[in-house]
Amino acid sequence: MILAVLYCLLWSFQTSAGHFPRACVSSKNLMEKECCPPWSGDGSPCGQLSGRGSCQNILLSNAPLGPQFPFTGVDDRESWPSIFYNRTCQCSGNFTGFDCGNCKFGFWGPNCTDRRLLVRRNIFDLSAPEKDKFFAYLTLAKHTISSDYVIPIGTYGQMKNGSTPMFSDINIYDLFVWIHYYVSMDALLGGSEIWRDIDFAHEAPAFLPWHRLFLLRWEQEIQKLTGDENFTIPYWDWRDAEKCDICTDEYMGGQHPANPNLLSPASFFSSWQIICSRLEEYNSHQSLCNGMPEGPLRRNPGNHDKSRTPRLPSSADVEFCLSLTQYESGSMDKAANFSFRNTLEGFASPLTGIADASQSSMHNALHIYMNGTMSQVQGSANDPIFLLHHAFVDSIFEQWLRRHHPLQEVYPEANVPIGHNRESYMVPFIPLYRNGDFFISSKDLGYDYSYLQDSGKVYFLSEELLNLVLPIYFEIAQNLMLLQCYS
């Protein structure tokens, strides 16, 4: 009976966005450049018969870009998503999704009219059952193929302009690893030529809005997978940490006794395989990461280049960032001075606000400190610490928004690195979201942080439901781990 209930739950939740919807990767879709699949509720494209949305031409921003990428027509991510699609579903009201079958962030119910506020909590405030549930969810995502989305394993040109689709299945966890790789990969210029000074999610204004959407999408996929609509990502408050206090087997994994670069065999994540880590190989072959396993997670926290990152961020560092009144300044890239975004990202000093190419601080400091898989930008999301880290970074962004109350016009409209203009669509999400859409309070997107709360009801999974669901997820996770050990 319990399994039957859970089976129904697992199929009753849908997510709101993705990369390449499975329904839109046929040669017909690609050659016609249209992604307007039917909504299952009425069988019409974009749920048009039910008033959910309609298939519309995509209107791209024509605002000028900065000088950092001096090419045109060489990268599939330019003017996203126009290389692949020029028509997608435009949803009405509170509906969203590649087929308008889902609700916007913060809205729930069959007609997307119910508002709820979910709360992200400190991982150290989770009870043992809640923490173990989180790990079980991660394991389940790592072993469940996405039913909705696939990844391209070739460029549009290699697909012969869509006539020969090249896509592959991928598990739900690795889908997001691949997304983070794809948004930050080098530009493939043909032959053996590449261009490294390009990134649609880092080193420029979209860093914070893009990762905000990334985390929301990830939460929604887990909510769908598990049927736990109250699931939120926990955060790791690393202010004033003297060491990686979550790098224990009780939490995110301790060190292997024989090889300090690997995780302890007792860790929940010691058997995990990573993807998208062989960047030079992809560049030399002018190929994309294909999602195949490339070895174990690597992490050796604290044994990093201390001349670049002398210490982890302090409370004073965070407070200095929050005191900066400008979101962006100057070149609006990693050389920007007195920019809140650039200082929080870690390219400017949290003592002075001046850009310093020799130092990695704040957000960047945590990546360098982990000294392993998480230290390489494109593959960093392989390490589940990535999620906890970025949830806390997002909370600092939220503090800044609440303190300074910026208008959306504060986010740069033009003359920033490619993909970072206010009206640019975020790579590689479908349905489409603009960078400026996430330059708003988290409360408007349906979530808050426990340490920032002032009032309002907190939504957690009830203890009764937790006790009902958790043993089943543990059994699934244990069976998956046993299968992996003997395979």
UniProtKB/TrEMBL annotation:
Major site of localization recorded for this protein: membrane
Cofactor(s) essential for the protein: Cu(2+)
Domain (Tyrosinase copper-binding) ranges: 202-219, 383-394
Location in or out of the cell: Melanosome membrane
Gene Ontology cellular component terms for the protein in this record: melanosome membrane
GO terms assigned for molecular function: identical protein binding; metal ion binding; tyrosinase activity
Sorted UniProt keywords: Copper, Glycoprotein, Melanin biosynthesis, Membrane, Metal-binding, Monooxygenase, Oxidoreductase, Signal, Transmembrane, Transmembrane helix
Coiled coil feature spans: none
The keyword Thylakoid is assigned to this record: no
Domain of life: Eukaryota
E.C. no: 1.14.18.1
Signal peptide interval: 1-17
Gene Ontology BP annotations: melanin biosynthetic process; pigmentation
InterPro entries: Di-copper_centre_dom_sf, Tyrosinase/Hemocyanin, Tyrosinase_Cu-bd
Catalytic activity: 2 5,6-dihydroxyindole-2-carboxylate + O2 = 2 indole-5,6-quinone-2-carboxylate + 2 H2O
EC class: oxidoreductase
Membrane-protein topology: Single-pass type I membrane protein
Disordered: region residues: 290-313
Family (UniProt): Belongs to the tyrosinase family.
Quaternary structure note: Forms an OPN3-dependent complex with DCT in response to blue light in melanocytes.
PANTHER family for the chain: TYROSINASE, TYROSINASE FAMILY MEMBER
Function: This is a copper-containing oxidase that functions in the formation of pigments such as melanins and other polyphenolic compounds. Catalyzes the initial and rate limiting step in the cascade of reactions leading to melanin production from tyrosine. In addition to hydroxylating tyrosine to DOPA (3,4-dihydroxyphenylalanine), also catalyzes the oxidation of DOPA to DOPA-quinone, and possibly the oxidation of DHI (5,6-dihydroxyindole) to indole-5,6 quinone.
The name this protein goes by in its record: Tyrosinase
Native organism: Macaca mulatta
Gene expressing this chain: TYR
